[in-house]
Structures are given as C-alpha cells and as structure tokens.
C-alpha cells in the first residue's frame, strides 16, 4: 500500500506563478523526500527533509514538514516551462527503503 | 542517471516467456532496488538488495525473482511473464555518501502481449 498521497493529482499554472503540491502520509517516518520525473525518464531527487526539521530550502524549492499532521508541501516559486514534470513524495522508513506516492503532474503554461 | 544503466530499454514479449532485466552500476554501491511504475500507482518496490547475494522482497514481489552475484549487477527475472507485468521498470541505488537518497536508472519499458 502507498504511504504518501499527493494532492492535487494534476496542476496547471502559468509560467512565473508559484506551484504548491501536498503530500500526506500515514505512519512515522525518518525522512520525507521529493523527486521529479520528466516524461519518459527516471526520477531525480530534489530535496530531503528529516523528521526533526520543519522547513528546508533549495534554490526555488521550499519544503515544509508537519509531523503532527503527517503532511508535507513542496513549493516551487517563479515557475518555468522546464518545471513541467511529475513530482513524487517518498517517505523513508529506515533500512534504506522508500515508499512513493502516486505523484502530482505539474504543467507550466507559457 | 548516476552511472546506472538498464538493459534492455524496451522489450516486447509474449505471455509465458521468461524475461530478465539487468541493472548495472559502476560505483560499487551497496544498495540496489527494482521498482515498477504504473499509471495510478506511482512507484512500487519489487525487490531490493543490500549486498552481494543479499536480497529481500518489496511490496509487489509475486511473480518476480532477483539475483545479485556481483556488486555491479542486479537482475530482475520474470519467470513466466503475464500481461499484468506490462510496466516500466526502474532500477535505483543509494549513494554511499547518503543513506537515504535514491538515484534512478533510465527505466525499461516492458510490454507483455
């Protein structure tokens, strides 16, 4: 069964706008990660946030984690056409295993 | 793709035939993983390996077997392919410098007719 559930399943915005995706999970975690997948390619790691962290930044990415609500959000600021991709959250449960959600398909319109 | 190659990249086969997919890495990583990706299901773990000849099952291991006789190669075998195993298969490794982040290969698209 899937641990992470992303919301929304699909998101379409104009270039330059901010994009926010959410992930909810069910059990205790060691960390939560976000990955991007361009069409026809493998997943690429974006950012990892540990269970004792609340917010993390990387370039135009901001990730928050609320362990009390078992949820995380990924914010992409000033979106670009190249950000068009599917985004997946994955929860780390130890033993170097990840459980992936179903993903959010993001489309950036020019 | 983090020095990970998968072969073949595309394969079409018939129901009941055996199929072996290969994942090859060149950087001596200990952990290797096989996932399948299907619409509406995201990525699901099939099997993983934490060393030579050390493997364990994932969430959807039925109908699949794996072998790891060398550090660099992790093989996924479908003993008798079924149409439900039509999918895109991804191999991944954990970078030795980070025990949590996974790096993915380019994927193998398998179609079982």
Descriptive notes:
By secondary structure, chain A is mainly beta. Helices cover 0% and strands 56% of the residues of chain A. Chain A has no helices and eleven strands. Chain A has strands at residues 5-7, 10-14, 19-24, 31-37, 43-50, 55-58, 61-66, 71-76, 85-92, 98-100, 104-109. In chain A, strands 2, 4, 5, 9, 10 and 11 form a six-stranded mixed sheet that branches. Chain A has a five-stranded antiparallel sheet with strand order 1-3-8-7-6, with no helix packed on it. In chain A, strand 7 (61-66) and strand 8 (71-76) form a beta hairpin. Chain A is globular, with a radius of gyration of 13 Å. Chain B has 113 residues and is mostly beta strands. Chain B has strands at 4-7, 10-13, 19-25, 32-38, 42-51, 54-57, 64-70, 73-78, 87-94, 102-104, 108-112. In chain B, strands 2, 4, 5, 6, 9, 10 and 11 form a seven-stranded mixed sheet that branches. In chain B, strand 5 and strand 6 (54-57) form a beta hairpin. The chains are: A mainly beta (110), B mainly beta (113). The A-B interface holds A 1-2, 30-31, 33, 40-45, 48, 88, 90, 92, 96-103 and B 1, 31, 35, 40-45, 48, 50, 58-59, 90, 92, 94, 98-107.
Summed up, what is this model?
Chain A has no helices and eleven strands.
Terminal Cα span of chain A: 37 Å
Fraction in helix of chain B: under 10%
Unreliable stretches of chain A: none
Q: Determine the strand fraction of chain B and express it as a percent band.
A: over 45%
List the total number of helices of chain A: 0
Q: Which of globular, elongated, flat, extended, rod-shaped describes the shape of chain B?
A: globular
Mean pLDDT across the residues of chain B is 92
The ordered H/E elements of chain B are: EEEEEEEEEEE
Multimerization state: heterodimer
Helix/strand/pairing class of chain B, anyone?
mainly beta
| Tally of individual helices of chain B | 0
The succession of helices and strands of chain A, N to C, reads EEEEEEEEEEE
